[in-house]
Amino acid sequence: MTSPIIQLTGVAGRLLEVPTGLFINNEFVPAKNGSTLETLNPSTGEVLATISAAEQEDVDIAVASAKKAYEDVWSKFSGQQRRVLLLKLADLIERDAEDFATLEALDGGILYNDSKRMNVPYTVECLRYFAGWADKVDGKSMRIPHGMAYTKREPIGVCAAIVPWNSPLMITAWKVAPCLAVGNVLVLKTAELTPLYGLKLARLIKEAGFPPGVVNILTGFGKTAGQALAEHMDVDKLAFTGSGVVGRGIMIAAAKSNLKKITLELGGKGATIIFDDADLDNAVFWATLGITVNNGQICVAGSRLYVQTGIYDKFIEAFRTNSTKTKAGDPLLGDTTKGPLVSTVQKGRVVARIQKGLSEGATLLHGGESVGESGNFVNNTAFLGVTEDMSIMKEEIFGPVASIAKFSTEDEVIKLANNTVYGLSNAVFTNDISRAHRVADALHSGQVTINTWGDVSTNVPFGGVKQSGFGRDMGEDALDGWTNLKSIKVNVLSVQKPKL
What we know:
- By secondary structure, the protein is an alpha/beta fold.
- Helices cover 36% and strands 22% of the residues.
- Helix 4 (112-131) packs parallel to helix 5 (168-181).
């Protein structure tokens, strides 16, 4: 039994067809018990589509399909064959860039232009980058007494990935590309808030020529489908990007089941540090972008701004001007510069954090209120005089809310920036190259950017420390998370036989 196909309207009335079923064994099928979920348009609150929602039985079927594909077919593919398929998938996504940008705008509230110009190209580049690694995953050779040893990296087997609702296509590529490149199969669960891109992607996976079962894509709820993957005895590795609470739950499930390999990319509370000698215009541009792009709904958001006293007043004036130049509206429209938050629940959380900041005594610089009568819109917001004990300085808000504080010395700001349980990404703005390196070395985070912010580069590893998780996406280092290392030791026999 196949699932129905829906039609959605995109830019300039463009019609887009999307399947509604679970993608298992290269077919779209309904959930076995008929479970469904509704995905909403965050700009209007209207229902976009009703799609299948995977339950335990569906997860079991998908994992069994992946396991069979790995054992019977995929494990026999060469690196060159895998490379060809990944490159074909990249070409197809590039061809259908407008469709993916439309879907991310419709059910994620992501600006169409941002998706088409950034998310889709980064996705394509990620697939092409790891396609290049497909036949180049090598080990090392070593001398040992009486012979030699060598190591080899082998695929793990049946892997799973649970991806978030922010930048869903790009983050999916971070999992899919290295996973398949090294020879694994994958069961992917999309976020319940933004599932539509995954159904479109599934069509292209089939069109690219991947054998049935190599990639299965499940739509569904985290508490059922996601939990079932985390607990599954036949899933050998699980990659997760999302909240710390869920990440902890996944680790517990892995420990209680088969001790599957886990990589986690969790939350962040990034510090943006601006020294007196920084290029003011550059610092203002990136600091603004760092807390407003995708409405601050990104793990690397620069939500803590530490500004040195000598440049503080000029920075605040320019930052306020930049941050309030927005036009909220339909993310499909070219002149919209501010889309909605992803859901009413997320909007409620952000508004509650803003109110908490006010009640704790922070000074509102701008924003702080909802926009319009419908949709999940919240103005860009910034607070001054925020102290380290305030919740808006400590907790991840995942919204367009900046907390700003002054600092005097380099040592002081390093202590402030490191005063967090998170350690994902920080940014430093200074024209003193020696200071830039000193501060970058002293910051406790997986990534530091200098005179820029965010900066996604496919060939550079990305991931966190502390409660921001472990493991890496992108770059050669990402391959470690999708392979097992085997050591082989060879006793080189001498001409003379050993004596007993």
